[in-house]
Queue: 4 jobs
Job 1
Amino acid sequence: MKGAGIVSGSVSVTPSLVIEYLFCPRFIYFMEVLKIPQHEDRRYKVQKGREVHKYKSSVNIEYKRKKLGVVKKKIEQELASKKYHIHGVIDEILFLNDGTAAPLDYKFAEYKDKVFKTYKTQSVLYGLLIKENYLVDVRKGFIVYTRSRDHIEEIIFSDKDRRGAITIIEDILRIMEKNFFPKATKSGRRCFDCCYRTICIK
C-alpha cells in the first residue's frame, strides 16, 4: 500500500528492521505481529556483524576521515524521529567542512563494486534522523567495509531515495499496526535460508 502516509501511533521502526523487511516483508509479520523470534544468534553473519562494534573501537581510520572533509564527529549516537517513526544508533555522525553532515556505518562485509539496497536505505534513514535532530543538511552517507581493508564507499542521497525509504517505513508500520499479512519476497532463493520457511504460507 504505497503513499498511504505515516500510520499514527507510538510505534517506531529501526533501520535494522528495514533490512529484515527488504529481505522479505513477511519477516515483519512473523517477528513483530506474531512475536516469533528468529534465533538469529545461530547465524554466522549476524554473529560476525555484531563483532564489528568491538572491531571499530579498536581501529583508527582518522586519516580517511580527513580525506572526506570531516571537521567533527560523534560516535554511537542514539536518535529518534517522531515525524518518521524511526529510531536507531548511528555508528558515527560526521560533520563536514561544507556545513553538511553524514552518517558513517561499519559493515562486516566485502565491497564488490556496488552498494546493496539494504545498506543504502539504512544510510538514508540515518540521514533523516541526523537532519531532524541536528537541523543540518544531509546529502550523503558513508559505508565502511571492514572485510575490504576498511574501504569507505560514499552514497549520494536523492529525493527519490528519501521518498523510497519513507514508503518502506509506511509499509512496515501498516504491517505492525494493522496486523497486515504482506506478500512474500519475489526472490524464491531467499526462502531456502529463511527461519520462517516451515510456517510461511505461499
Job 2
Amino acid sequence: MTDVSAAGGRTPSRAVEQALVGAAERVLVRDGIGGLTVRAVAAEAGVAPMGVYNRFGSKDGLVAAVLARGFEGLRAATAADDDPDPAARLRACGRNYRRFALANPQHYAAMFGAGMALAAPTEELADRATAAFSALVDRVRYGMDGGVLRRGDPVETAQLIWSAVHGAVSLELNGVQQTPDPAVTYEALLQLLLDGLR
C-alpha cells in the first residue's frame, strides 16, 4: 500500500489511516497484542515505518486506533437486533456480544486487557468504548420501558449485565469452562440475568 492512487493522485489521508489500521488488525490476529509493532504493521502494509508514525504519532496511537475499531465492531454487533420484544432484544444483545468475542478473540483480549494499557488515551477510543456500552444501556432502558426489567438506573443495571456476560465470555475464551456446552451455559446465564432483574 502506498500514498499514491492508481489514478496518479494522492490517496485521501483517512483512507491511508484506515488501510494502516486494517494492516494492524491483521497483525493483531496473527501475532497477538505483543506482535503489534510499528515495524510489523509497516511491513504488513508495505510502507516505511515512518509512514505509520506520520499517521498515528506512536505505537500507542496505532493501538488506540485498532481498539477503537474493535469497540465499534462490538457496538455494531450488540446493537444489531431490534426485535420489538424487549426480552428477545436483550437476549440477542447478549448472544451477539458472545459471538463478537468468539469471532474476534485477539481484538476482544486487547480491548479488555493489555491493549488498553498500551493505547494512547485518544478521544476516538473513548468515544467508541462509550458507544459500545451505551448500546447495552439502550437495550436495558428498552427492557425497563417494556416491563421485562425492574425500574432502576439503566447504567447500573447494564453494568451488572456486562460484568456477568464479560466474565462468562472471558472464561470461555481462556478455556476454563467447566460445563460441556458453553453455548447452553451462556443461554442459561442470560435467562438467569433476565429472571433476576425482572
Job 3
Amino acid sequence: MADKCVICINHITKVYQMGEIEVRALAGVSLKIKRGEVISIMGPSGSGKSTLMNILGCLDRPTSGEYTLDGESVQTLDDDQLASIRNRKVGFIFQSFNLLSRTTALANVELPLRYAGQNGERREKAYKALKAVGLEDRVYHKPSELSGGQQQRVAIARALVNNPAMILADEPTGNLDSKSGREIMELLLTLNRERKTTLVIVTHDPTIATQTERIIRLRDGLVEK
C-alpha cells in the first residue's frame, strides 16, 4: 500500500551516561514516515539528529520507546538481528561516500548482497544498480578513478541494490561541488519517484531540505512543532 507507514517511532528516548552525568540526546521523539515519502531532518548541532539517524538506521538502540521499521519491531533486537535488518531494510548514503578504495565500483555495489549471503545473480544485480545511476561504463573503475559525483553515484547504487524499505542519506551532497550536488539530488528524487523507496535525508542545507516533501526539525532532542 502506498500509504503504509514504513518508519513508525513512538516516544523514543536516548540517554548517554557521561560519568555521573546523564545526557538526554532524544527526549521523546514520535514520527511516522510513509512508504515513498521524501523527508529531510534538520537541526542545530546537539539537536539529536545524528542520534535519531543512528536509531532509524538500526546502528543504535533507543533507551526507551518503540520503533517499527517496515512492519518489524526493532528496539529489542540483539546485535546480529540489528545487522540483519539493517542489511535488508536500510540503504545508507554517506557524505564521505565510504567506498572501499582498492575495489571496483561493481565490487563495492556487490557488498550488501555479499553480506546477505546472496551468490546467484549478485554481479548482475550490482550492474543493474550501477546502470540505474548512469555508471554502466564505469563498473570496473576504482574510486580513485572516479569524480566525487561518480563516487556518490556508486554509493547510491550500493544503497539501492538490496531494494531496501528506506534510503538514509547523511549530508549526501556535503562533499560535492554545487553542480554535482544538484545532479545527485535530482538522481535521488528521480529514483524515489521510480522505485517508491522512502528517502530520509539528514542535512544542514536548506536548499536540499526544501526539495523534500516534509522537513522534520529537531531541537534539544525533540521534534519542533
Job 4
Amino acid sequence: MGRGKKIVIELDNVWKSYAEGNVNALKGISLKVHESDFVSIIGPSGSGKSTCMNMIGLLDVPTKGKILLDGKDVSKLSENELARLRGKKVGFIFQQFNLIPTLTALENVLLPVMFQDQSDHSRERAMAILNKVGLGDRMNHRPSQMSGGEQQRTAIARALINDPEIVLADEPTGNLDSKTGKGIMDLLVELHEKEGKTLVVITHDPRVADYAHQVINIIDGQIVHDHGMEKSFVWKNK
C-alpha cells in the first residue's frame, strides 16, 4: 500500500523514554503513513501504541529518532510550532469523546476554529459536516441529550472542521456497543473512501483493525508484525 503516493508522516527509529531513561515506551519504531492510507495500529494495553499515536499526532516529541511531516523533520520544533501544525494537519477523535458538556453539538464542532475564524463560512461548514455524519437534527443538542454514538459522531465532525490531511482516531469504538461501534467504523470508512482522508486508527480490537488496509502490531514498544493487504471491511462478530 502507498506505492507512488507521498509519505505524509514518517517515524524514523523513534524512541521514547520516561523516568530518566529507565522506561522505554517506544524502542526504535520506524513506520511510514502515505497519503490517503488507512492504517491501524494495534496492541494490548501498555504496548506503546498510545505513545506511538502521540508521535504521529505531534502531541509529543521523541527522546531519540526523527518525526518527518511531509519530509520535514519536526522533532525539534517548539510546542507552539507543533500546535500550529497539529491544527492544520491533524484531526483527533478520542475514545472519551472529549465534548464540552455545556455546549451544543454545533458549538463543540466549532471549537477548533473558535480562536481562528468566526466567519459564517465556518458555521456553514460545521452544519454541513454534522449533516454528513447524520446529526442534522441534533446539532442544537448538548452531549447529555445525545447517545454515545451521536456523541462520537459529533467528535468526528469536530475532527473534520479544519479539513485535516490526517484523521487520527484513538479507540474510536472503545466506549460503544458492537452495533454502534460498527456504525462509527462504517462512517470512518466512508469518509476515507469518499474524501480520501489519511486515516490512522489506534485500537486493541482486532475487529476494528480489520477495517484498515495496513495493520501495524506493537508489543513492548516495538513493531512485531507489519503487513499491508486489502481488507473486506466487515465487522466480524465473535
